[in-house]
Amino acid sequence: MANINLTLDALCKFIEDNKNKINKKNISYLEKLSNEEAEYKINYVDTNKKATIFPLKARLDNILHSIAKKNNFVRYGVLSIVKSFPETDISFVSSIIALLIENFIKFKEAEQQEIIETFMRKIYKDVKEKYKEFNYNKLGWVSKEFYSHIKEFVIGRDTMRYIADYLNINILIIELFDDNIKYIGRETFVKYRKSLILIKHKEEHYEPVFCDTNSELINKLIDTPMFVEKIDCNFNNKTEDNKFNVGNDDLEVKEEKMEKVIVTEENSFADLKDIGKRLGIKLTHIKNGKQGMKTKSDLIKEIMDVQI
Fold first, then answer.
1. Phi, psi (5° rounding) for residue 242?
2. 170 touches 145 (CB < 8 A)
3. Which residues contact residue 244 at a Cβ distance below 8 angstroms, ignoring those fewer than 6 apart?
4. Neighbours of 30 (CB within 10 A)
């Protein structure tokens, strides 16, 4: 076959002759997307380094700006690759573990990898038992596909929901590019369950958000549920149900019949720490770039806030 040299003039003539065949909607969409990408950019943070959660797009900035500033919201870079999954971004799990294990960010990389891989092996080992325990068949999940997703660690709705259920937590995801907050967890959000906040970049890459307290944000989202979109994990639904529903109780709360705990300055610091732990309150915070123990006043305020 002879080589054909395509000149710039010939290319321009071809486009001119065929312009009526071009879908203008597609051109408009691509231009809009390109401009949006050019206007908004926020980089990943290097592993174990921190950065502000800003800049945010307009909607997220409106929801989060004052709360994030007041409560020192910062994001940290986490491991995205481990030996067991060299081609899979596992930052979703790294972020969750970083928020659950105190000072995890300061651990050596080898220690972090070992903990992450141990957790991933554990949730796969328990996958069949938990499939039954959490009644995932009622959500239309096909067991074989679900087991495969956990084994290969495919981050989708089922994997994220499974991790939230397994750890008995709420997960709130700040989706930077989509300018949205999403919730993954049980059908109804329960404020008495520990809530973790993650940042999601345009790609499937996540970072944990650390703060002095997330109770102010949680209360705001409960008061204005239209700010949050639930990730629908019920595969039986013909149309996605993204409504963020707030529950008033939890199985654990029912079983223990927990009553509101009133705390004052008269409570000892040891008592406050114990109560804080039972309510899922983090005892340390980041202030002026350093992590330290919260004060007695901080704990009293959070203990009372979380029980509102």
1. -105, 10
2. no
3. 183, 189, 221, 225, 226, 228, 229, 230
4. 10
Strand partners, 196: 171
What is the rounded CA–CA span in Å between residue 46 and residue 50? 8
* 146-155 tens-digit pLDDT: 999 999 999 9
Residue 29, Cβ density class (10 Å: 0-12 exposed, 13-18 middle, ≥19 buried): exposed
Q: Residue length, the chain?
A: 308
Per-residue pLDDT at 253:
44
pLDDT of residue 302: 84
50-246 CATH fold: Cathepsin B; Chain A (3.90.70)
- CB neighbour list of residue 298: distance below 8 Å, 6 or more residues apart: 212, 213, 285
Distances (CA, A) of 174 to 7, 24, 282: 48, 33, 20
Q: Per-domain residue ranges for the chain?
A: 50-246, 259-308
CB-based contacts of 179, cutoff 8 Å, min separation 6: 56, 57, 58, 59, 60
Per residue in 230-241, pLDDT (tens digit) is 999 999 998 989
Q: Which amino acid is present at 275?
A: I
The C-alpha atoms of residue 198 and residue 92 are separated, in whole angstroms, by 8
Q: What is the pTM of this model?
A: 0.71
| C-alpha 46: how far from chain center | 18
Q: Tokens 């938990």, residue?
A: 130
Both structure tokens of 101 = 């294990």
Unique residue bearing structure tokens 């990898």 = 113
Cα–Cα distance for residue pair 121/150, rounded to 1 Å: 9
